[in-house]
Amino acid sequence: LRASMDTRFDSLDATFNDTITRVERAVLDISSLSSDERPDSQRKIKLDLDEAERIVQQMDFEVRGMAANQRQPLARRCQTYKDDIKRLKEQARKSFAAAEEEQNRLELVQRGPGAKDRAQLASTSDRIKSTTDNIRRAQQVASETESRGHEIVEELDTQRDKIIHARDGLKATNMAISKSNRILHSMVRRMKNNRIMMYVIILLLLVMIVVIVYFKWIKKDKKKEPPSSSSSNTTSTKFLF
Length: 241
What we know:
Elements: H1 2-28, H2 38-64, H3 68-110, H4 115-224, H5 228-240
Helix pairs in contact: 1-2, 1-3, 2-3, 3-4
């Protein structure tokens, strides 16, 4: 089952990359299209981007069914693909807008503008050029920021894994300490019980010794000793007779 899920994910990944590559080429060709060709290109780009979003949704679904150790890097890849789709949508929108402005400028030139119109045309051309340069710089900054963001996310994931590992180690240590404490308490309790039993046995032995001594010597000696008063009376009587 896991191998089947991996195969489906790899197939979706390959399809997504083909679709995105096709969209990137179409976006780069926007500036060279005529006004009649641009609507058809815009429609195809939209369909391809919608297809890319659908593929990413299927990839998300596949990732949720994978094991935890595989889920994290593939989820990051899906998020990167979503960011690529947003970037291409914005890039296509700006490219179509720039192409439209360029077409308007060419139409003004073909109509033979006057001095005022030429000044406006030059100003518009400069604004378009400046906007294009700003877009390129923004795209470069966005690409660098995105790359740095992915590095930071990966580093944070690594740190999180280390923290989780350390936390698991602490849990195991706490469990070992708790088990040791229970063993020590049990040993102390047994020592106390053994000591009490020893004292009881010693006390019983002492009592038995006292009882034995009493019955063996003290009480026996009392039985053997003759009564002194009766003996003296008998002797006196004999003398009288």
